[in-house]
User: What shape does this take?
Amino acid sequence: MARLIHVGDVTEPGERRHHGNRYGRSERARRAVLDAVDNLLVEVGFARLTIEGIAARAGVGKQTVYRWWPSKVDILLEALGDDLAEELSPPDSGDLRKDLCAHLAAMASFLTTADAGAVFRTLLGQAQHDPDLARQLREVHIRAQHRRDRLPLERAVARGELPSDVDLDSAVEQLAGPIHYRVLVTGAPVPPEFTDGLVERFLREHPPE
Assistant: This one.
């Protein structure tokens, strides 16, 4: 009888066997599940997304997935956390204009074209009628992303490119808010000239001291 080989059991030739991370999970299997949930959400939508389908796509056992995550929403939340940190960590070139233009362009692309952006939009929608999910999104993922969004501004203040008394939280809202409004409310496109324009307007309003 053929044995089902789980992703976490496989070791390539010449590769060290991964014995799991601090949660007792194989990192390769974890990554396979998180990649699978991103892809499947785009293909089948939230309503038809199932633990069984995620496990099959990832090549792991269904009970393995249930042991690590109580629900598909928990998988989506973990995938979102990884994706935000990987795709929306701003660059540090030493030039505020360049860093903000690159970061806002990446934000627009993430929200409009990336599978991970579809996860974010889906979770925002579900959070409208799930207070616990809304709390997790705000207190963990959105708060962490807000800290990342502040980084180019904090560095610019330290370099003297921005006034020392600039309200950084309001600045993040001024820069990122219009992008989210277009993506989530009006559905208007977010081309590079739009995000670059946000940066130019912000810099005109906040000249160096």
